[in-house]
Every structure is written in structure tokens, then in C-alpha cells.
């Protein structure tokens, strides 16, 4: 996420590090490179120029030139202004109403249906509400079936009316059904439309007018860059929506949409999609995103994700095992399952300060642990609890049972020992040790 922008900003700030003395000239040169980095990230020229002008004014006003650490102070100003550019602080979703009605709109292929299910899952798990989904996309083949499949995955009911081609009627009847069944939130998934399609834009306007939503969210594919900003503007003129959702942010190496959209439509980015899984949805925190863009990590989000998977008792037991050198393959397997629930492994590593640079060239996908799990599951319970008894014949049997080569089994056992050491290293900032282990596990 934002790899290209992060790299270019790092090079821009390197200009300052190369000078013994900081002057207005090399500060100007740094900000010129910052502006170029923003433009390369597909940020609107006017926004990029205004941003660097503001940073320059604040830098001079805060006496960056005479500061003991001018480079760090300038980076802090850039970070704070970047957070403000993206909205300053997180904006919560409005769930007022009986039921609260949430209308989802956006372009074709932006990921509205998947987001609708993710949002229902988020509202159910994090907000303690009882949501229902309404399938009002009557144009795309299999859209209703897709929503029903996703609804089953998260155990949320989906309302639909077969053969009804009137999305306004479906939405209104869905709201009534939701109210009757005791659902306090209904989420309406609508058809994708182009901003230039006048008839389809009138239709979403009619849905909006009739259902009177407490929250209207515009879903946009962040990878479309400046085009995403333009369509956000066109939709806002019709719907005056409450917030923006950026999907596919995990695949966006540029970041132009996230940096431009707020100042263009003056509406907050409320959520970001970070993958296909139903739990791959995050509340958008501008300050945390600014930290990640500048390579500072996002420890707060990492801790929040970890807290969702771990309880204090489990953490205490694990700490004791590590301290007494009793961490075994059963513990290792459990940790892998917890990490997988937290999200994409490479994304998680990028949340640790300093790791984004180390992890940049390491390709770790969602199946990174698949062969590791197969090997561990081929061990007997006794072998998992006592790794020291893994002799040659046992390793050969494990290799055959897991369908892996004996060298991979040996490699995993060595990596397991490294993992035990690394857990202690992490307390003293052993970033490269973990990166090396991850590289070996590919």
C-alpha cells in the first residue's frame, strides 16, 4: 500500500540529510520533490501545490531552519498536514433511526456488494447491532446471489424480491421487512452506474429520495486514482452523500485517491477495504494513514487487531511459555491461526515502524503459511509438544504425510528455533531478524 509514494517521499527527505546545514534553498528543494512525489501518486496538481505551500509556510513559521533537528521537524509538519489533507480524524458511521438505513452507491466494479457485506459484518461485530442486507441491484447478473452467499458467510439475512425490476420498490419493502423482523440496521446494495449515465444517476437519486437514508456511502476503487476523485465529485453533486469508502487500498501503490478525495468533495473517508475477505475492512484514520505513508508504521491499528484475537489470559500463558523456553509447535500453529485472522501478513508487518522498508521486496501472500500448517499437522501431538524428539525417521514420515520435501521439514524446524529466539529479539527491535525469517518461509 502506497509503496511508490513512500519511497519517493523518503528520497525527498534524503535531500535534507545530505546537508550539514539546513537552508531555505534545500528545504525548498525537498518540498519540490515532495510535490513531485504527490503528483506521481496521482494527486491533483492544485492540491499538491497547496499542500507544499502550506508546509513551507509552517516550516518557516516554526523556525525549522534553526531547529536542532530540522529534518525531523519538517517530516512532522508534512505528516500533520497530510493527516489534515485526508480529514484530520476518523469519522464514525451514523446509525440513528429505527431502523438505521444505509444506502451504498458507486461505480460499476467498485466493490459495492462486497463492501455491503463487510459493513454488515462490521456493524454486527463491532457495533453490536442486528443488520439486514437488501439486494437492490437488479441489473448485474448474479449480484443478488453474490450478496446472499456473502450474507451466509457472516450470518446476516438478505432481503430480495425475485423478478422485481424496481429498485425503489425493493428498497422500501426491504426496510419494512427489516423493521418487522427487528433489524435495527438495513444496508441497501444498489447497482453500479456511470456518472455519465443520466438515467441511472436519476434512479439512484430516486432511491435516495424515497428511502431517506441516515447514511449514504459512496464506494470507489482507490486504484483508479484521479478518476476516482472525479467520479466522487459527480456523485456528490447528485446525492450529497455522507462519506467515502475506498476499496482495494491494499493494491494501491500510489495513494492519489486517499490524498485528494477529501479536499475535493469535502466529505470524510469513512472506511477502507483491504482485501476480499469479509473482515478485511478498516475504519479510516487519517493520522495513522499519514504515518504509514511516511514509513512510520501503524502500531495502534496493529495492537487493535491483535486485541481482537487475543485475550489477556492467552497472552499471559504465551509469555510464560516463551520465558521458560517451552514454546512448542502447537503454540506455533495457534499463533499462525491468530495472525491469519488479523489480516494480510505483509500488511501487518508494514504496521511495525521501520518494517515497511525491510518488507518491501518480500512477497508474502495469504497462503504464506499453507505448507507450514501442512507439516505441523502431519506431526503427532507428542512431536508437536516435544520438538526435540524429531529425529531422521520422524522427519521423513512428516515429509511424506504433508507432501513436502524433507529439506522443507528441516528448514521449518530451524525456522521454529529462530522464531523462539526472534520473540526475545523483538523486544529490542530485531526487525531484520523477523524479515529474514519471513523471507525464508516463502
Question: Could you write a compact summary of the structure shown?
Answer:
The chain is an alpha/beta fold and 442 residues long.
Protein described:
The chain is α/β, with parallel strands linked by helices and 442 residues long. It contains 21 helices and eight strands. The chain has helices at residues 3-17, 24-40, 45-61, 70-85, 112-126, 143-154, 167-180, 198-211, 226-239, 256-265, 286-293, 299-309, 312-323, 329-342, 345-349, 355-359, 370-377, 381-385, 392-402, 406-425, 431-440, and strands at residues 100-106, 131-136, 158-159, 185-190, 215-221, 243-247, 269-273, 281-283. A hairpin with a 7-residue loop joins strand 7 (269-273) and strand 8 (281-283). The longest helix has 20 residues, at 406-425.
Question: What can be said about the biggest beta sheet?
Answer: 8 strands, mixed
Total beta strands = 8
CATH superfamily of the largest domain: P-loop containing nucleotide triphosphate hydrolases
Distance between the termini: 20 Å
Spatial strand order of the main sheet: 3-2-4-1-5-6-7-8
Estimated share of beta-strand residues: 5-15%
Average pLDDT, all residues? 78
Low-pLDDT residue intervals, each spanning 5 or more residues: 427-442
The percent range for helix content is: 55-70%
CATH architecture of the largest domain: 3-Layer(aba) Sandwich
And the CATH topology of the largest domain?
Answer: Rossmann fold
Helix and strand composition category: alpha/beta
Amino acid at each position: 500500500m502506497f509503496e511508490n509514494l513512500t519511497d519517493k517521499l523518503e528520497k525527498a527527505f534524503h535531500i535534507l540529510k545530505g546537508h550539514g546545514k539546513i537552508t531555505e534553498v534545500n528545504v525548498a528543494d525537498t518540498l519540490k520533490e515532495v510535490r513531485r512525489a504527490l503528483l506521481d501518486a496521482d494527486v491533483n496538481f492544485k492540491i499538491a501545490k497547496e499542500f507544499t505551500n502550506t508546509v513551507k509556510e509552517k516550516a518557516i513559521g516554526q523556525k525549522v531552519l534553526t531547529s536542532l533537528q530540522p529534518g525531523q521537524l519538517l517530516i512532522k509538519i508534512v505528516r500533520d498536514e497530510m493527516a489534515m489533507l485526508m480529514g484530520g480524524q476518523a469519522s464514525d458511521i451514523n446509525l440513528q433511526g429505527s431502523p438505521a438505513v444505509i444506502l451504498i452507491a458507486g461505480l460499476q466494479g467498485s466493490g459495492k456488494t462486497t463492501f455491503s457485506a463487510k459493513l454488515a459484518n462490521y456493524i454486527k461485530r463491532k457495533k453490536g447491532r442486528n443488520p439486514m442486507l437488501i439486494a437492490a441491484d437488479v441489473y448485474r447478473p448474479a449480484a443478488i446471489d453474490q450478496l446472499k452467499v456473502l450474507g451466509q458467510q457472516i450470518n446476516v439475512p438478505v432481503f430480495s424480491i425475485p423478478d422485481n425490476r424496481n429498485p425503489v420498490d425493493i428498497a422500501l419493502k426491504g426496510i419494512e421487512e427489516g423493521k418487522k423482523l427487528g433489524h435495527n440496521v438495513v444496508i441497501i446494495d444498489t447497482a453500479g452506474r456511470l456518472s455519465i449515465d443520466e438515467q441511472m444517476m436519476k434512479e439512484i437519486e430516486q432511491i435516495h429520495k424515497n428511502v431517506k437514508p441516515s447514511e449514504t456511502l459512496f464506494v470507489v476503487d482507490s486504484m483508479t486514482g484521479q478518476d476516482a476523485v472525479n467520479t466522487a465529485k459527480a456523485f456528490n453533486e447528485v446525492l450529497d452523500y455522507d462519506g467515502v469508502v475506498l476499496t482495494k487500498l491494499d493494491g494501491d501503490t500510489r495513494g492519489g485517491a486517499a490524498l485528494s478525495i477529501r479536499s475535493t468533495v469535502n466529505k470524510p473517508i469513512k472506511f477502507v477495504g483491504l482485501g476480499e475477505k469479509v473482515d478485511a475492512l478498516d475504519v479510516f484514520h487519517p493520522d495513522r494513514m499519514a504515518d504509514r505513508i511516511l514509513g512510520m508504521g501503524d502500531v495502534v491499528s496493529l495492537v487493535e487487531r491483535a486485541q481482537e484475537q487475543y485475550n489477556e489470559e492467552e497472552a499471559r500463558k504465551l509469555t510464560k511459555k516463551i520465558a521458560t523456553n517451552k514454546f512448542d509447535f502447537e503454540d506455533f500453529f495457534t499463533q499462525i491461526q491468530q495472525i491469519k485472522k488479523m489480516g494480510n501478513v505483509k500488511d501487518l508487518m508494514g504496521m511495525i515502524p521501520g518494517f515497511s522498508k525491510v518488507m518491501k521486496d518480500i512477497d508474502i501472500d495469504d497462503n504464506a503459511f499453507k505448507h507450514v500448517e501442512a507439516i505441523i499437522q502431519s506431526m503427532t501431538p507428542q512431536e508437536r509438544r516435544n520438538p526435540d524428539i524429531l529425529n531422521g525417521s520422524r522427519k521423513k514420515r512428516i515429509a511424506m504425510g504433508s507432501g513436502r520435501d524433507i529439506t522443507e521439514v528441516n528448514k521449518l524446524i530451524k525456522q521454529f528455533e529462530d522464531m523462539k529466539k526472534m520473540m526475545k529479539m523483538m523486544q529490542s527491535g530485531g526487525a531484520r531478524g523477523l524479515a529474514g525469517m519471513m523471507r525464508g518461509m516463502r
